[in-house]
Amino acid sequence: MQTVTGLYDNHEDAKTAVNALEDAGIASSNISIVSRSGTTDESKAGEGAATGAGVGAVVGGAGGLLAGLGMLAIPGVGPVVAAGWLVATATGAVAGAVAGGAAGGIIGSMTRAGVDENDAHVYAEGVRRGGTLVSARVDDDQVDIARSVIDASAPVDLNTRRAMYREEGWQGFDETSADFTEEELVRERERARDYRPMA
After folding, report:
1. Second label for 169, Cα 20 to 30 Å away, from 33, 55, 66, 144?
2. What is residue 7's predicted lDDT score, i.e. its pLDDT?
3. Where is the General stress protein 17M-like domain (predicted)?
């Protein structure tokens, strides 16, 4: 299996991507969504999250991904609305005392699923700053369709976002960082919307 991932500034775009992935035949149990600012909605992938340590109690065992979203805390990200295999894996890593830096939590879950570690840091930081992460584990013959679905839903350009973070001295995702306040999240979204890379 391969992992196809997208980061979205707009939660509605992320929800569109999840629904389109399901409509394209990607199993709900192979789709995840993690958001600092999500809302409950209808879909199916939350069923896969119920297998993770402690996640079943949070997202429930029935219903869909967006219908089954639950609240939990991820170290370094803070309180999130999430469901799916990625959050089940991240929560299991935390529950198993594996968390710490790139070895555990959300970074470790992504890298173990095949996401480049440098990209995983940007994805995790993006969620910390108010973005929504959509990730799908797919068979080799589904990679192109999953990538086209995620790309069609207006994801963040990862290299541009990485550059924005680095201009302020960011080195990588730090799970000991303080949570963003609501005001900081609003400012961060505005900054991301208006950001143009330095020449």
Report:
1. 33
2. 96
3. 5-69
> How far apart are alpha carbons 188 and 190 in whole angstroms?
5
Q: CB-side exposure of 100: number of CA atoms within 13 Å?
A: 3
Per DSSP, 169 falls in state T
Q: How many beta carbons lie within 10 A of that of residue 2, not counting itself?
A: 15
Number of other residues whose CB lies within 10 A of the CB of residue 180: 17
Give CA–CA dist 167/81, Å, rounded. 29
Tell me how long the chain is.
199
List the chain domain ranges: 2-194
* Predicted pLDDT of residue 143: 96
> pLDDT tens digit string along 60-97?
333 455 555 667 677 777 777 777 877 666 655 444 33
**Count of C-beta atoms within a 10 Å radius of residue 69:** 28
At 102 the pLDDT is: 33
Which of these, 116, 154, 161, lies nearest to 4 by C-alpha position?
116
Order of strands across the sheet with 70-74? Answer: 2-8, 132-138, 31-35, 78-84, 70-74
pLDDT for res 89: 65
Q: Which of 161, 166, 165 is nearest to 9 (CA)?
A: 161
Q: List the structure tokens of 111.
A: 């890298």
